[in-house]
């Protein structure tokens, strides 16, 4: 799994050269994974859904008992966004406890982002990878080894993502995405209480879909008979699924009506958000 080169870096109050060392060796955020992060999409001058990301970021920090940084996360994001233009970037916000006696550390980085194939993606399914009843599963922490290795293995067999099963046999989410399936005409997504992260695009889609969308457990046998499966994330938006390795090989991907509708709903929300941001910059309210 190759890391993309950074295009922008903000660390502890200042913009820095992207290759400048900023990590303190004694920081438990980097030694132990005791850190929270958010990844936001920047595209064509817009950093999407900042309020929602910061709210989840602060909830995660409070749950881990991380001290509040002396800098504004929103201001740091804005400074990095001002350095960017044009094509899509993944902008990551990270908070760590910092090294002993140094106080917390706040980082913002930006790197290039390439969207998955618009026609659809493949996934693998990893059984018993998550603890359904563990509250830590719903926090976006930097403890990502399990997810990173699962996705790396998936990519080695031509998949874009790995779906993660729980210790109780259901399927919670992907390593970097939330899971949706269409069963008997109804859109279904696993509840966060089953080990799923409360994804930003997931919540947006649930809130705008209307009747015919529910949160309930999904098992492999449900996915095997689903008429459609797609994934959501802040970066990929809607990622329609074509196949799940060793489970189903003939899903419709982007041709599915639910995936088309979901993409349209998120596109409309993003358009409205971008217009509101533009109005603010011009001084309108």
Average predicted local confidence, pLDDT: 96
Number of helices: 7
What name does the CATH topology of the largest domain carry?
Answer: D-amino Acid Aminotransferase, Chain A, domain 2
Coarse shape: globular
Distance between the termini: 44 Å
Total count of domains: 2
Proportion of residues in extended strands: 25-35%
- pLDDT below 50 for ≥5 consecutive residues: which ranges? none
Q: What does the largest sheet look like? A: 8 strands, mixed
Strand order of the largest sheet: 9-8-7-14-13-10-11-12
Radius of gyration: 19 Å
In the CATH hierarchy, what is the superfamily of the largest domain? D-amino Acid Aminotransferase, subunit A, domain 2
How many beta-strand segments? Answer: 14
The CATH architecture of the largest domain would be Alpha-Beta Barrel
Which secondary-structure class do the elements indicate? alpha+beta
Succession of helices and strands: EEHEEHHEEEHEEEEHEHEEH
Short summary of the structure?
The protein is of the alpha+beta class and 285 residues long. The chain has helices at residues 28-31, 50-64, 73-81, 145-156, 200-209, 220-225, 257-281; strands at residues 6-11, 14-16, 36-43, 46-47, 89-96, 105-112, 121-130, 161-166, 171-174, 178-183, 186-189, 213-215, 228-233, 237-244. The protein has 2 domains: 6-112, D-amino Acid Aminotransferase, Chain A, domain 1, CATH 3.30.470; 121-270, Alpha-Beta Barrel (D-amino Acid Aminotransferase, Chain A, domain 2).
Question: What labels would you give this structure?
Answer:
alpha+beta; D-amino Acid Aminotransferase, Chain A, domain 1; D-amino Acid Aminotransferase, Chain A, domain 2; 2 domains; 8-stranded mixed beta sheet; 6-stranded antiparallel beta sheet; 28% helix; globular
